[in-house]
Amino acid sequence: MENDRPISELFSLSRPLCSLEFFPPKDDTGVQALRDTAAALKKLAPDFVSVTYGAGGSTRERTTQISTMLRGEFGLTVMPHLTCVGHSRAELNEIADRHHAAGIRNIMTLRGDPPKGVAEFKPAPDGLSYANELVCLLKARHSDFCLGVAGYPEKHPQAPSFEIDLDNLKRKVDTGAAFITTQLFFDNDVFHRFVERCRAIGITVPIVPGIMPPLSLNQVRRMNQLSGSIVPAKLIHRLETAGDNTDVAEFIGIDWALGQIRDLLAQGAIGYHLYILNRAKAALALAAGLAA
Ligand code: FAD
């Protein structure tokens, strides 16, 4: 099988870039369900798909398994995520070698969050402390890797200030990252301001907005707690009107995300990255909405 093309080659497309994010399921039943989702999403023809990396345990192996499946069975360009959590430099190099040998050329390069129940991130023995160090390690190991890194339009929760967080983001790019994918957000103004501030400090690489259709009030509240994403009062009000009707809530969430994507593209965003939570329905509805 041919090597994946670097995602950076897609930046000059004359149409918006579309990528989808999967997470590795816990068991074989989940893998089959994901296969069904991938089959349903084939008609969307995403430019690439990414597969998240767990904080530890067996789902980490599944990141490789799912990436291999999505490449082999569906012919998709994949971008497995990799984090520093719990890995020595030697282990990270070994994972990098395995991906490279398999033809993978794109990696989402992250520090990662500590496993559940552990409050603070601590580097593993002979491990790495920050994503910029992983960018450096991967580039030194395989210079033809195309690396994405995470950006936070509403600031990384642990960063002492926005300025410091942006400087840290710039360090990741200066070390060799080819593009930034953002944390999800529900209010486009925060993305537009973020891009402005990135450009002002000399971050010139493409910044791909991360969008998760807000399909229920519970979901947006959880995201607000986890990532600090502001939930506009208008969105809360619209989701409240759905009451217990999940179909109506989903319709509202898809409509909201559609409005976000249309505005982002109209304002010059290079494309969009969809956090689809391994489900096809919302992504297909969004694609249909965008094509209309
Ligand atoms: P870093 O860029 O290292 O930043 C972490 C913190 O340290 C920030 O506050 C930053 O300002 C600060 N910092 C950075 N560099 C330095 C430095 N050199 N010196 C001092 N301070 C510094 N998590 C997972 O576990 N698995 C995944 O698959 C995953 N995928 C993600 C995908 C995207 C698109 C996003 C946005 C997040 C993802 N996450 C994932 C979550 C991410 O791992 C967490 O947000 C984590 O807390 C930070 O990771 P990072 O790569 O942004 O870290």
Textual characterization of the structure:
Helix content is about 45%, strand content about 15%. With about 290 residues, the protein is an alpha/beta fold. It has one domain (about 5-290): Alpha-Beta Barrel (TIM Barrel). The longest helix is centred in the C-terminal third of the chain and has 21 residues, at about 245-265. The model has no long low-confidence stretch (mean pLDDT about 95). Flavin-adenine dinucleotide (FAD) binds near residues 111, 113, 150 and 171. Flavin-adenine dinucleotide binds near residues 55, 83, 111 and 168.
Quickly list its features.
292 residues; single chain; 8-stranded parallel β-barrel; alpha/beta; binds flavin-adenine dinucleotide
Q: Just give the CATH class.
A: Alpha Beta
Supply the number of structural domains.
1
How confident overall, as mean pLDDT?
96
Helix content: 40-55%
CATH-scheme architecture? Alpha-Beta Barrel
Shape: globular
Would you list the SSEs in sequence order as H and E?
EHEHEHEHEHEHEHHHEH
Q: Summarize the biggest pleated sheet.
A: 8 strands, parallel, barrel
Question: Order of strands in the sheet with the most strands?
Answer: 1-2-3-4-5-6-7-8
Bound molecules: flavin-adenine dinucleotide
Q: Total strand count, please?
A: 8
| First and last CA, distance | 36 Å
List unreliable stretches of 5+ residues: none
CATH domain fold name? TIM Barrel
Structural class: alpha/beta
Radius of gyration: 18 Å
Instruction: Quote the beta fraction.
Output: 5-15%
SS field, number of helical segments: 10
